Amino acid sequence: MTFGNFISVPTRTEAFGDDLRAALDGFVADLRKLVVKRIELVTCTWNESPSVARARASAVKQYLLRHGVADADAIQVRANCTAEPARISLRLSLRREVEARVAAALPEPPPRNALLWPLPPVVLKRLPQRPQDFDAVSIRRLDHAARDYKNTGVSWLEVSIIAPRQGQTGVAPEDLDAYVAAVHLVKDYLVGRGLDAAMVHVRPWPGRHLAPGGTATQDQHVVLIEAWAPEPDPMPRLAFTEGYMPALRDVRRYA
After folding, report:
1. What helix, strand, coil percent values describe the chain, rounded to 5?
2. Helix, strand or coil for residue 175?
3. Tell me: the pLDDT tens digits for 18-33?
4. C-alpha to C-alpha distance for 74 and 54, rounded to whole angstroms
5. Taking the complete model, does pTM exceed 0.90, yes or no?
6. Which regions of the chain does DSSP assign to beta strands (E)?
7. Residues 6+ apart with CB under 8 A from 64
8. How would you label 17-55 residue by residue, b for 16+ Cβ within 10 Å and e otherwise?
């Protein structure tokens, strides 16, 4: 589940202001990175009629439908918040707020050619949320990796997140927004360094953790970049050089 909150929502889509449209456009951009299962638009009635509160959520629904993020049947409107805590009902009512609750998943990448040769993976210990969040170490590792990928003719890349400890099988649902932001920022960075966007894929929760002796810290997830090429790497990388890392423990054992 992921959430979006929109304040001062009019009852008609045509009356949406620039700030609200910008917020909704950012929400739509995030939804396009996901496979959306269901969107629930929630408003609360406290100092206005249920029909007016419902109209606010319906206006947001129409905006989302115009942008094609989901079918009409997948977007539900709920204007009765009697089951919610009173403070939430009061907040949504006074701020004329619509809360969007989304059930979604990351898309699976297309099947990878099993005949490709793997290169040593690269790990980033930080999860960037904005372009300016890339630190000097991450930039150096990504630039080094992008150069190697171009020099060795890499034709397939996968960006994902792995767990820091054995027994963890990926990223918790409440971390979905952070995961989506991080992996797509890393993908965009690599594409910005001259790699073909069509060969850079985002992988959902991989169910992996670092093998003993890995480079992740003990309390945080890390970004993993895996690469494959049509030919074996003519210059094998040294372990840990510029972020290259050793063995992985693959929980799901996919090829």
Report:
1. 35, 25, 40
2. helix
3. 999 999 998 998 888 8
4. 17
5. no
6. 2-6, 35-42, 75-78, 98-105, 117-124, 156-162, 200-202, 208-210, 222-229, 248-250
7. 24, 28, 31, 39, 70, 75
8. eeebeebbeebbebbeebebeebbbbbbbeebeeeebbb
